[in-house]
């Protein structure tokens, strides 16, 4: 094509996913740097545990990465821009900023975990909304949802909404989202889930299903089929099948 390919090369310093091992970096970089039509634009790694309370593993990853960069520079190989910091490390670990940072979830107005200091004023860039598809009055002692784990302790008015774990609802904002799974969520004791309806929090009753959730709206007036519901969820795991509506501010 008569063009120069500007490539980024990834070092696996502890994520165990993509990239070359540090011990393989020097020969690989040497080979790639000799290829015609190829320019190394940058070198990067990705932190596996920067969202956790203990930053020791993240600092260890950073040291491995810096050692690789040092070996490449000692061999007079141009490794381009160096990048390591994700959203959590951008806020918590200044020494990992290097030439550039790669923020993700922060761009959506979300902190990646409860361990990240609230040092920025973040404003949500999006909202997930749905509408009530059914309203029912059920008697005291009624079981709701898979497993019958929830049994009503009073006559209860419920609202059903067409949102579930397939849409990303069970991954709660500001939790350690990358370590959660649907089965793990169903198995462990968790915080009470809710959705916002008519300006109030409506508790979730029973397990969240794949695409349906039951809410307790007994104490909330004016609920009917079609009432708008705001769902607390993270942008990243929200299903791409949900229609997006873009509004300019």
Protein model, in words:
By secondary structure, this protein is of the alpha+beta class. It folds into 2 domains: 5-108, Alanine racemase (TIM Barrel, Alpha-Beta Barrel); 128-231, Lyase, Ornithine Decarboxylase, Chain A, domain 1 (Beta Barrel), CATH 2.40.37. The protein is built from 4 helices and 12 strands; from the N terminus they run E-H-E-H-E-H-E-E-E-E-E-H-E-E-E-E. The protein has helices spanning 22-33, 56-74, 87-92, 182-187; strands spanning 5-10, 38-44, 81-83, 128-131, 134-138, 143-144, 150-151, 156-161, 194-197, 200-205, 213-216, 228-231. Helix 1 runs parallel beside helix 2 (56-74). The radius of gyration is 24 Å and the shape is elongated.
Largest sheet: 7 strands, antiparallel
The largest beta-sheet arranges its strands as 4-12-9-10-11-8-5
CATH homologous superfamily heading of the largest domain: Alanine racemase
Order of helices and strands: EHEHEHEEEEEHEEEE
Beta-sheet strand percentage?
A: 15-25%
CATH class of the largest domain: Alpha Beta
Calculate the terminal CA-CA distance, rounded to whole Å. Answer: 42 Å
Can you tell me the residue ranges where pLDDT is under 50 for at least 5 consecutive residues? Answer: 172-189
Provide the CATH architecture of the largest domain. Alpha-Beta Barrel
- Which whole number gives the mean pLDDT? 89
Tell me the domain tally.
2
Could you write a compact summary of the structure shown?
This protein has 249 residues and is of the alpha+beta class. The chain is built from 4 helices and 12 strands; from the N terminus they run E-H-E-H-E-H-E-E-E-E-E-H-E-E-E-E.
